[in-house]
Design goal:
Elements lengths: L1 H14 L5 H12 L12 E9 L2 E17 L5 E11 L2 E11 L6 E6 L12 E7 L6 E10 L2 E13 L2 E8 L9 E12 L2 E18 L2 E6 L6 E8 H4 L4
Parallel strand pairs: 1-5
Antiparallel strand pairs: 1-2, 2-3, 3-4, 5-6, 6-7, 7-8, 8-9, 9-10, 10-11, 11-12, 11-13
């Protein structure tokens, strides 16, 4: 019986057809081939924000604003969630998520280098970003970012509303002396007409804030009571805007 079983086993092995080498290689490649992982992000829309410097626009440095979500409440006030991707020399450096409440249809983005309201040095590590409807009387959302050594930080944010020279905005102090300051100040400035008189107005200051650089990170400290006026003065429209 043992001899018969041995002969039967030999016949069974010899009858199996060996696999071609190509088939064996194909199976081995198929088993070891990693699956491709596609990480495709879906955004509601994407806007490209050009960064201006000295009246010029950089082609290699820009920001992509990805709309992640947008909803309207019962009062039709729209709140939008964005992710801002920062690119230097066409390479993504970092990103930041922001929430904007009160989005107006037709709102536009804007960005410039520097802290000052007029000058915008190209080599400044500060980037000011604005978002709002481009017309008088509308509120815009504003953000100050610090981008240096591939580190990105949202330093400050505020709202601006302006109408024919009147309104409320933030003014940065000691911002033009150095491109890379280690400290600076800002305050909220409001200028409103006096009793509907377009020639006279009242200027107020509030929310005086100091910023200090610690390592590569900015820290801020409120120097005055929040949302409380610490300076007030009646002044002519022309004097306030240095038009005399």
């Amino acid at each position: 019986m043992k001899i018969q079983a041995f002969i039967f086993l030999c016949l069974l092995i010899s009858c199996q057809k060996p696999k071609p080498v190509s088939q064996i290689q194909a199976e081995a490649i198929s088993e070891n081939k990693p699956e491709a992982i596609v990480n495709k992000e879906n955004f509601l829309k994407t806007d490209t924000i050009s960064i201006s410097d000295d009246a010029e626009t950089s082609k290699d440095n820009y920001i992509l604003a990805h709309l992640l979500d947008q909803k309207a409440d019962k009062d039709s006030i729209v709140t939008a969630k964005y992710r801002l991707d920062f690119y230097l020399n066409k390479t993504k450096i970092g990103d930041s998520k922001i929430i904007i409440k009160g989005v107006d249809k037709g709102s536009e983005w804007g960005a410039k280098y520097g802290l000052a309201s007029v000058e915008s040095p190209k080599n400044s590590p500060f980037i000011q970003i604005s978002f709002g409807y481009p017309a008088c009387g509308y509120t815009s959302s504003n953000y100050l970012y610090y981008l240096k050594n591939n580190d990105l930080q949202l330093v400050h944010q505020w709202d601006v509303i302006s109408d024919s020279g009147w309104g409320t905005w933030v003014k940065f102090e000691d911002a033009t002396s150095k491109t890379n300051p280690e400290s600076f100040y800002c305050k909220t400035v409001s200028f409103e007409p006096e009793n509907d008189n377009d020639e006279m107005g009242t200027v107020t200051y509030s929310d005086s804030t100091v910023f200090h650089l610690s390592g590569n990170h900015w820290k801020k400290q409120l120097l005055s009571a929040k949302d409380k006026v610490y300076f007030q003065k009646k002044i002519s429209f022309n004097e306030f805007h240095d038009l005399d």
